[in-house]
Each structure stands twice: as C-alpha cells, then as structure tokens.
Amino acid sequence: MANLKEVRNRITSVSSTQQITKAMKMVSAAKLKRATNAILQLRPYANKLRDILADVSASVEGSNSPFTVDREPNKVLIVVVSSNRGLAGAFNANVIKTTNNLIFNKYAEQHAKGNLSIIGIGKKGYDFYSKRNFNVVANHSDLFSDLNFGSVSVVTEFIMEQFKEGNFDRVEVVYNQFKNAAVQELTAEQILPLLPAEENKQHTHKAKIEAEVDYIIEPSKEKIIEELIPKAIKIQLYKAVLDSNASEHGARMTAMDKATENAGDLIKSLKLSYNQARQAAITTELTEIVSGAAALSNG
Questions:
Q1: How many helices (H) and strands (E) does the chain have?
Q2: Half-sphere exposure of 119 (CA within 13 A, CB side)
Q3: Could you give the number of structural domains in the chain?
Q4: Conformational region of residue 59, where left means phi above 0, alpha means psi within -120 to 50, and beta covers everything else
Q5: pTM for the complete prediction?
C-alpha cells in the first residue's frame, strides 16, 4: 500500500502543476493579445518612417547628423532585450546565445580589449552578463512594468548621447522578432550609426522612387532629415522592445500549453500505474484469503 500512496501523491502533485501551467497559459494568451496589437500597430508607422527617410536622404548629397557617422567599430555596445521572468521555453537562452555569437565572433577583438559594453533590457539578460563580469553599463528591467514609447526613448537618448560623444562607435540590439505565437525570429540589428537602406535596393529602385515619390517639404530636405533621424532611431529600439514583449508572451503561452499537455500525459500514465498496482494488491489479498481458507478446511 505504500507504493499506492506514493503514486496517489504524485498524481495530486502533477495535477496541481497542471492547473498552474494552464492558468499561466491563459494569462499569457491575454497579454499576448495586447502585445500583438501594439507591435502590429507600430510596424506600418516604423516602416513608412524608414521609407520616407530613405527616399528623402537619397536626394541629399550628405547628412550632417552625428548619428550617421560610420566610424571604425573600436568601441561596441550591445543592447540585450530579454524578459524579466523565465518559464518561456528557449526564449531567453536564444537571446543570450545570439548575443554570445556576436561577442565571441563578430566583436571578439573589441571584447578582448575590454571595449565591449552591454545594456540589459530585461532581468534575465542583465543577470547573465553581470554575473560573468561583462561590462554591463545599465539595467532597464523596469521598462516592462510600464512599457511605452517615452520610457524606451529615455534609454535611446542615453545611447544616442554616448554615441555622439564617441564613447561607442557601433550599437547593436539583439531581440526576438515576433512572427506568431509559436515562432520568434532571433534578430541582431545595428541601430547606430544609422545607415541608409541597402545600396543594391536603392540602385534597383532609384528610378522608380524618383518617378513615384513626390514630397512637399518645408523648410528643407536637410532640416527634415535632421529631425527624422533621431525619431527613426527611437522608433527602431521601441519596435525591438515591443517585438520582444510580444515574443515573450507567445513563447510562454506555447511553453505552458506544452507543459499542460505533458502533465496530462503523465497523469494518465500514473493513473494506469496506480490501477495496475491496486489490482495487483487486490489479487494478492484474495490469494492470501483463499490460501488461508483452504488451510483451515484441510486442518
């Protein structure tokens, strides 16, 4: 009977875990809806802003903006966008893996010289690199408690100021780009210096752009570009954080759904083991009773 009690306790424990994972799945599904709406509403604006900036800057000889200066990347900053909590499958592990590939492959020389810095947006990424003695210059895990354009812009302005002063020559952001609830695409994007659109794409569509795009610009193209560049950089980082936020909830919902299914399969297996053990125990008791009765009748 001790074995039966142990199996019953395991069934109770797994059932409790299943209720928790099911509740977490429902919470993530509700949060995913809001996060998905936010990123889907921002993407058209961000893409159009980028297109306008590319169209206008294509007809200007050069920009005087300090954010377009392409220097030798001696000092590099990587913005790691992770989550504050776990239980989201490989969501955080994949961000860290992609960041490590950048650090130890693309920027291995800068890392060896101590010229590589990290900003953590999300507790998991910040904890990972701070505990391993990387040069983590800031932690912005609190952004997700009240995620909005203004709070992310504060981070972007700090990065832009550091880039302008020459403390960083290149800034990249690593995040999960949201595709759907089950698919997140790991992305590493350069946000500073702000480079024009791909030259091949520009050359291919240059005639088409000049023919179809006709903007009325005041006061001047140069002034518009100078105004658009900081906003485009802020929008780029804000979009990355929104993408990551939606991806986190999608990954957690998928992980909790799978955990709930696995708990159900385990409960079925445990109940089968329980019934088999119970049947064996009953059979043993009956055999003992029959054997005892036979012994008494023979006596």
A1: 7, 5
A2: 23
A3: 1
A4: alpha
A5: 0.81
